[in-house]
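@channel sequence for tomorrow's demo:
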Amino acid sequence: MVKIRNIELGDFPLLLAPMEDVSDPPFRALCKKFGADLMYTEFISSEGLIRDAAKSLQKLDIYEYERPIGIQIFGSEIESMKQAAIMIEKTNPDIIDINYGCPVKKVACKGAGAGILQDIPKMVRMTEAIVKSTNLPVTVKTRLGWDDETKFVVDTAERLQDIGIEAISIHGRTRKQMYKGEADWTLIGEVKNNPRMKIPVFGNGDIDTPEKALEYKNRYGIDGIMIGRASIGYPWVFNEIKHFLKTGKHLEKPGLKDRVEATLDHLNMSIRWKGELLGINEMKRHYTNYFKGISHFKEYRMKLVASQDLNEILETLEYIKENSELFHFAHDEI
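structure tokens (generated this afternoon):
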């Protein structure tokens, strides 16, 4: 049984990665429904929180059915991160997670996210300050290093464990790589197999099939897998991997009707959470992913993306559902 302090996550948990503009409450609800064991919020700016920025505060919304749930913060100032952790504890999440992995220029080049990988001593000091400021378990999400010359993650993970973090998730790329090239899991395996490491070590990067999940589980010995991009438009990925790990067989893939149902759930929850205008607009980035790989779908995707009228969107989705025999999948994919 993998545990973060007293939070039981199962024998080989699957985690939903924190993804900006993706892993909001509506998306998390679907991932929970389809098998995610632990989820994290979108990353939240520590500076935004302590300045009461509306967008940052809204990201603190968590719901009982999501538990266990972690709130993730990022920032470059130790005092601000400490104050943000104190604020977050009042909203009663299960975990506080620190983002040391975001490679985006506007974050990393200000010394936050993966930017702190250029200053490991500061990373350790910041983490220690956050651990001391909260009674909640603190976890870390990071990368192998800033670039090929600074892949210090084995030593860094040990140092972070020693000052009190209770789990670490490692993305198998450097900051310089961004999301390009293939994720290198060899150092993730070295972190896990370091005899001094006692906390759970989760691997992240490029897991998009049940076969790959099984292969990496066996090859690197990690405690669980964090899944990001493979879940966008495909929350079924969690249950598919779990079923394959347990039985060696594939679950039947969701058909077009299943995809429409999930899209409708996502849309309705988005509207309830954000209001009709924002809910409709923010769903537009998801339609392509939910209906990926379906032939002759462009006309309907354009309708969904172009429309601002909720009734028109619902009618289009119902038409697709009722006429599913008109469409077929161009190829199998997750």
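heads up for whoever presents: The chain has two domains: 3-247, 256-326.
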